[in-house]
Amino acid sequence: MPQGTLPLDGITVVALEQAVAAPLATRHLADLGARVIKVERPDGGDFARNYDADVNGLASHFVWLNRGKESIVLDLRDDADNALLHKLLARADVFVQNLAPGAAARLGFGADDLRAGHPRLIVVDLSGYGDDGPYRDRKAYDMLIQAETGLISVTGTPDAAAKTGVPAADIGAGLYVLTSVLSALVRRGVTGEGATVSVSMFDAIAEWMGHPLYIRMYGGRQVERAGVGHAAIVPYDRYPTTDGEILIGVQNERGWASLMTDVLGRPELVDDPRYATNIARVERRAEVDGLVAAETAKFTTADLDTRLAAAGVPAAEIRELDGLADHPQLSARDRWRTVGTEKGDVRAILPPMTFADVELAMGDVPALGEHTDKIRAEFA
Q1: 170 tagged catalytic
Q2: What is the pLDDT of residues 132-174, one digit of tens each?
Q3: Can you state the percent helix, strand and coil of the chain, rounding each to 5?
Q4: Does 12-208+331-378 carry CATH code 3.40.50.10540?
Q5: According to CATH, what is the number of the domain 236-317?
Q6: Which of 188, 205, 212, 300 is found 20 to 30 A from 332 (Cα to Cα)?
Q7: Is the peptide bond before 235 cis (omega within 30 degrees of 0)?
């Protein structure tokens, strides 16, 4: 196993966080080697602890998002506990918070005050809609952000809109927090100055809406919901086989030629002017999808998948979640590890960032307040 130094070894992060977005960011910081001290409420802690009980009695979101952290329970309305958090921040490198707008400042942890006292501190405020504007104080759950940014309007089938199956707004915002912290740490290494950073879930998904937004603004049309298909590329959808379905995505004319000639045995369609370009195929979407489906229905899923891979045509089997848990790519690349929890060990996938000289940290998932006494003694 690689034995190098973790990238964020020696960095201390204090997180006044809950739910998904901020915990995702700080979990990645912990994976990268930072010490992450998670501050939780006395009345049950991070409410994500109670979303479900599917992981040996623990919540799936919490187990996913909080490994490698230390949990301290503080009542920030108590003077002594409030003072202790200030002591933690005096020795921290990064402070991340995603309380309701203005709540951190009312407790004495506003970015301006903290930076005035600790100019090297990197303060990140994560919100739903941003620091100002008419939506500033609105509730901002993932589904609501997906609705307000138009993501739901382009997701689903022609018959029904849908939100994404994972919390896209939370994940997107959390990754922008991660990027911001890493960028600020690099800049601080050059200038010695910390940073004040704001990230909002709304801004994150507004950024992700780039291509459908431009199509609406400049093309004058709403991107149609296409299920698993693509509004601007054909063939790019699910197609039947003798025993199921398979996804095929052809993004250029070389791919179209390979699909027709090397896989489906219809070389006469390669240069047919009705189908020779993607623009032409989009204009005849139903016709193209129908002719592709008529050919794919002659193969089993496994046989067709093999033929498509050999021809270099992008394709994928449509797997249920068991298919991911048992995916041969994860097994072949040794991507599973074991992490501890108060209810026993659980499997976890290695972080996506793979360093050649060191394996990223995969710390235990903390019980509520597990490190309270230790941290109180350390910062007394």
Answers
A1: yes
A2: 999 999 989 999 999 999 999 999 999 999 999 999 999 999 9
A3: 40, 15, 40
A4: yes
A5: 3.30.1540.10
A6: 300
A7: yes
